[in-house]
Amino acid sequence: MMTPIKQINRFFLLATGPFLGLLIAMLISGPGLHLHQETRPFTVDTGIPAATTAISAQLDQAEQDAKVTITSIKKTAELYNKTTSTMSKIVQTSQNAAKRPEIIYNHKITSKLGSPYKTIESDRIRIELFTVNPGSYRGYAMKVKLKSPDAMKMTLGKDKLGGAETTLAAAKRYGAVAGINAGGFADSEKERYPLSTTMLNGKYLGSFEPSYKDLFFVGLNKSGKLIGGKFSSQEQLDRLNPEFGASFVPILLKNGQKQEIPAKWKTSPLRAPRTAIGNYKDDQLLIIVVDGYNEKGGSGATLEELQGRLYKLGVQDAYNLDGGGSSSLVVNGKIVNHPSDGQLRPVPTHFLFFK
């Protein structure tokens, strides 16, 4: 029977045998066998710190570039604003300088007419109304600046050849701000037809008639300029690009010079209500409508008086329109003059003005 001590010794030997063998081998081999352990720092390199540093550097550079760009933009904007402001001042100065002769000339015109008692202005037209009272007659002057050619038109009474209506009715029907009677007419079978050459919307009503006796044609061309005179052929009139116009007698001024008034019209009648249209050098229009209480020759103005007044006012070309009971001036839906018939006469043609 094995004793407990022997069992323990045997177990010890078995357990420690491998260790003892390794120790003996090491002793036998000597210094030739040794364990070598290299000490290295423990690091975990994921690459994130380096990328973050690069991105951060790029962001810093971008921020600096943005600051430089913003500064540059601000300086450019300031320079642009200064340049724009300077250019605007230069343009305004140039415009004022360009308008100065016009302003001076207009002041010269207005100083002869006096102060307007009514002014109507839009981007298409400017109308100024004045009283005319030289002593022997009383009337009204309407100075018109057409800023747009379509601010003035001619219309037919009731929009038909042979039709007639008052200037007030025509103005209301067309929505015009002002209007005057236009050319002469002849009655036939209870209808009223315009005299001689008449044009509407660039077309002849009927046909062209060469000017004869004291008749003339007056109207506007397609550029909104007053044209008029005597024409022996249609080609002669067509060269002026007429848009509309009517005929009557006689011509009062041409190129700033008084025209000879035929003896017949000096006394038949002597005095009468009158309507005349003319233009200035700057193409402004001047219309004068003279009051008279009848057509018997005792009230109103003579043609020579009207001619002299237009001449003194600096008008260049002037034409006498139909007068007597036909003389009409309406503004803003009201009759300005005092018709000799006691009321406005229906006529076949009207010159209307639009805001």
Overview of this structure, please?
It is a single chain. This protein is elongated. With 355 residues, the protein is of the alpha+beta class. It has 6 helices and 20 strands. This is Phosphodiester glycosidase domain-containing protein. Pfam families: NAGPA. InterPro entries: NAGPA. Residues 174-354 form the Phosphodiester glycosidase domain.
Counting helices, strands and paired strands, the structural category is: alpha+beta
* Rough outline: elongated
The overall pLDDT average reads 87
Q: Write the element-wise H/E pattern from the N-terminal end onward.
A: HHEEEEHEEEEEEEHEEEHEEHEEEE
Helix segment tally = 6
Protein name: Phosphodiester glycosidase domain-containing protein
Domain Phosphodiester glycosidase: 174-354
Pfam families: NAGPA
Please specify the SSE layout and strand pairing.
Layout: H1 4-29, H2 48-113, E1 118-121, E2 125-132, E3 139-146, E4 152-156, H3 167-174, E5 178-181, E6 185-188, E7 191-194, E8 199-200, E9 203-204, E10 216-221, E11 226-229, H4 234-238, E12 242-248, E13 251-254, E14 257-258, H5 263-267, E15 274-279, E16 285-290, H6 303-312, E17 317-321, E18 329-331, E19 334-335, E20 349-353
Antiparallel strand pairs: 1-2, 2-3, 3-16, 4-20, 5-18, 5-20, 6-7, 8-9, 10-11, 10-12, 13-14, 13-17, 15-16, 15-17, 18-19
